[in-house]
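Possible regression after last week's pipeline update?

I re-ran a chain I had predicted before the update to compare outputs. Posting the input and the new output here so someone can diff against the archived version. Not blocking, just want to make sure nothing changed silently.
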Amino acid sequence: FALTNSDDTVNGTFSTLTINDRIIDNTTTDKDVLNVELLGGASVPTTVEIKNVETLNFNVLSGTATVDATNYSGYNTVANTGTGTLALTNLKSTSAEYVMKGATGGLNLGFAPAAVAGIDTAKVTLDGTTSGALTVDANVENVVLTTKNSAATLTNFVATGATTVAIKGGQGFKLDAANSFATATTIDAREAGKAEFAATAATTLLTGSTDDKITLGKAFAANDLINLGAGNDTLVFNVASTVTNAATLIGVENVTFKTTGSAIDMKNADQKAALTFEGGTTISAIDLALGSTV
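New output (post-update):
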């Protein structure tokens, strides 16, 4: 199927893409769109070729549908517009934008080995996502999440190779409390709206000017930096903290300890804070700024 030199739109139902189908555009300066429905359990075969169609919208109606992108090239945006999960395999472009557009739709990004052989970044836009799950190829080191149009909530985030996560877009972002950014050592949410998430490996954690709530699933290390910016922010410890290491705390108004026997050294905090110890037993808080409460 050959497209024209104009901005073409191709619409298809769940049986549109079959073995050896080809959708080819010989121009790269237009803005072509492909809209295709997929059913749960569907698998778009490797032999389907799509060339220079700038936007690919897959409406996964239910369940999980798999799209093998081995022979896809020249695309700028790939989106799941449905309520099911879109599992993409053998993607060649880490520069493209991948979009979760359905409120509950999930997205799995799997790249061809050659595409993620170096230090790579995957860019995912959360457009109206209220309970979607995102999985990113284990060979991707950096993930950029951009909220769009409204606050976004992810029920799960899996990116076992990611050491850096950036959250942008100016809208609120929440990662469901049952999950966390498990491997990222740097999380930068300064360009997000209100942020609420857990982190278990972060040594640098940055948020913006809203009332953020960050749960830390690790004890402080001496070189850790927690900068929650302006707003009335809360830092929650889900593991026992000790007074051995005093991390740098900036813009942290509230600190909550969930476990027993927690302790903290606040000598590197830039302001007073309200400390709440919920775990009981022996607690310790030293080097508090004037006006702090326990």
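Follow-up from reviewer: compared with the archived run. The mean pLDDT is 94. Marking as no regression found.
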